[in-house]
Amino acid sequence: METIKLTINGKEVEAPKGSTILEAARLTGINIPTLCYLKRINAIGACRICVVEVKGARTNVAACAYPAAEGMVVETNTASLIKARRNTLELILSNHRMDCLTCLRNRSCELQKLAADFGIQHIRYDTDKTEPEIEDSSLHLVRDNSKCILCRRCVAVCKYNQAVAVIGPNDRGYQTHISCAFDRNLDESPCVSCGQCTAVCPTAALNEKDDTEKVWKALGDPAKHVVVGVAPSIRVTIGECFGEPVGTNAEGRMVAALNRLGFDRVFDINHTADLTVMEEGVEFIKRLETNDRLPLITSCSPAWIRFAEMYYTDFIPNMSSCKSPQQMFGAVIKTFYAKERGIDPKDIVTVSIMPCTAKKFEIHRENEQAVDGLPDIDIAITTRELSRMISRAGIMFGELDGEQFDDIASTAGLIFGTTGGVMEAALRTVAEIVDKKPLENVEFTEVRGVAGIKEAVYKIGGRDVRVACASGLTNVKRLLDSIRAGEKQYDFIEVMACPGGCINGGGQPVQPSSVRNNIDLREERAKAIYNMDSGAELRKSHENPLIKRMYDEYFGEPGGEKAHHALHTTYKRQTKYKLD
Amino acid sequence: MPNLKTKVPFKGTPEQESKLLGIIESHKGKRGATMPVLQQAQDIYGYLPEEVQITVAEGLGLSLSEVYGVVSFYSQFTVNPKGEHVVSVCMGTACYVKGAASILERVERKIGCEAGSITADGRFSVDATRCIGACGLAPVITVGSDVYGRLVPDEVDGILGKYTDK
């Protein structure tokens, strides 16, 4: 690797060619403060917090965007720089509605932290930001531009990672604000509800829509049987909300916390991921045999469904008709479980804990009612909302003893939580059903990892099965465009809307840039999932005894009529633009 | 001045649309296509309503938000058509200190639409302009090519009344 040498704060540093000053400084143990910068997402030098002095430069330069060069002499902490940063912070704060005590991001706000770090206790400038500017038209998020600092992280993630660019800076100068085209509400825009913007916002300008009050109400109603299901990825992220390292497996304590909160049953949605594998596996085998509507494309990610229904409608016939594991969970609870326990499904409240804001949208989709008139899932909350419920209930998460779920799931269902996982889980089952013999190795490592697009070819049933996995809608777009152009052919595609899959979903714990700039959340969280899988006994969905019992006692055959009615859905073209 | 969304129905013709599509086609795939396409689109339609911006966005492979961001940034673009009568209230320094703000308020009230927008019937549009160079007559408004100077707010209704029946 080609390197350059430069001097930072009087010390010589060797850095890879192409590094920014920020990256080079990091190599010598200096953390230049940043605000708008977010590694791999936003490096535009807009906020001016990361300014440094470069010998010979006319003005201070933004370290996040300025390339380090051979022989460069840089100062990062002079009195004049600290004064400049303080001044900038004061100006940003002067245009910020500061109700920190009652703010959702109190103590996790990057602006608040910087203000504290720089000892700002008084703002010299008057503010006109005194009222909230709430936009809560959509089912999944709330924007409050009175907290917006115009860092444009949300704009960058929406455009570059997710390829939809439904928000952007409107107007100019002091009037500049982040909004949709024509300042329409988000629910009138072609937003896919992925919520990536809420996970990168440094302040409280963007948050998930909080549905915890509905959960508290259900838990407090003695007439309701309240059942909770937890998505695969939550167990490896929830610890972060309580200060634990990224990649901590907190499954047992998470189950214990849910029991303490008072849910009547605590289930692992991994088991309906197993069910998804059965239904989708059979669907794939049928389509493969008849060469029908290939590639089959997975349908677990509701932001992807929304993307397909608005942007890639020509791929709708390719999509698996399987409901997502969340929706299958609701369907199973209100049919199989209700019957088995002798409870009227009307008296059951199904709550799901999701890594995802689009799940809040998905529960309202058409044809997601296994029992007519009852939504499969009543309330979907994110990892962040669950952590707030746990805190509010005074449950000391770190000190809980682990408890077990009230059901059985395989770790094939668990790996659904990361990119490549749905594909691997499906292949474990499809290969054994088709080839009628146990796999020698259940690990399909080619489809693992954080790469945006992964491809592999596997021999199944004597033929080559061409698979691909894409995560992050920009990568999905690239993949689908290459199919449209006739450059690529596949038989089976896994799509996850968020980069890295659900472990990096829009509802996952918000990590500040100080963490995100130094570790890859996707890698660390995925590692925890694969570690659990590699040490597990039950690693194949079709070997899950609970799944076998569900089919024997209720659903009949995978892909059969009863299963189809309860566990499958439909898709249709949606308009992108909603004109008056 | 932020662009205010027009309430006048879009009345684009097939001829205008095919002209716009031709322009988009000739710029497609080129760097920096957005500005020239938007400028020519505004030449064709006189303004850039949502329908036109959607055509530009879809044609150039951009999102509507990206297109609107550009349109709302540059003051040369407008999302509102001009009315049959264009009322411009000068907000230059001289007019401003001579009470242009209260003139504008009176104009907006009389016509029933805010600066930067157009009445629902399309008869009047109101603009708050920069200095028009008639500082000696401050405060000044123009209606079409007619100039009215040294105004007091009470004269506004009478002046505009002359155009309401035309």
Summarize the structure.
Chain A has 580 residues and is an alpha/beta fold. Chain A has helices at residues 21-27, 79-94, 110-117, 153-161, 196-200, 212-219, 251-261, 270-290, 302-310, 325-341, 358-362, 383-392, 411-414, 421-435, 473-484, 513-516, 521-534, 545-555, 561-567, and strands at 3-8, 11-16, 51-54, 61-62, 73-75, 134-135, 141-144, 168-170, 177-179, 206-208, 225-230, 265-268, 296-297, 348-354, 379-382, 453-460, 463-471, 492-496. Chain A folds into 3 domains: 3-91, Roll (Ubiquitin-like (UB roll)), CATH 3.10.20; 133-208, Alpha-Beta Plaits; 213-567, Rossmann fold, CATH 3.40.50.1780.
Question: Which descriptors apply to this entry?
Answer:
heterodimer; A: 580 residues; alpha/beta; Alpha-Beta Plaits; Rossmann fold; 5-stranded mixed β-sheet; 4-stranded parallel β-sheet; 19 helices; 18 strands; B: 166 residues; Glutaredoxin; 5 strands; 44% helix; 12% strand
Textual characterization of the structure:
The complex is a heterodimer of chains A (580) and B (166). Chain A is an alpha/beta fold. Chain A folds into three domains: 3-91, Ubiquitin-like (UB roll) (Roll), CATH 3.10.20.740; 133-208, Alpha-Beta Plaits (2-Layer Sandwich); 213-567, Rossmann fold (3-Layer(aba) Sandwich). Helices cover 33% and strands 14% of the residues of chain A. Chain A contains 19 helices and 18 strands. In chain A, the strands form five sheets. Chain A has a five-stranded mixed beta sheet with strand order 2-1-5-3-4, sandwiched between helices. Chain A has a four-stranded parallel beta sheet with strand order 12-11-14-15, sandwiched between helices. Chain A has a four-stranded mixed beta sheet with strand order 13-18-17-16. Chain A is globular, with a radius of gyration of 25 Å. The model of chain A has no long low-confidence stretch (mean pLDDT 96). With 166 residues, chain B is of the alpha+beta class. Chain B has two domains: 14-73; 85-164, Glutaredoxin. Chain B contains seven helices and five strands; from the N terminus they run H-H-H-H-E-H-H-E-E-E-E-H. Chain B has a five-stranded mixed beta sheet with strand order 2-3-1-4-5, covered by helices on one side. In chain B, strand 4 and strand 5 (146-148) form a beta hairpin. Chain B is elongated, with a radius of gyration of 18 Å. The relative contact order of chain B is 0.15. The mean pLDDT of chain B is 92. Chain A binds chain B through residues 159, 164-172, 175, 180-183, 189-190, 577, 579, and chain B through 2-3, 5, 50-51, 53-54, 62-69, 72-74, 79.
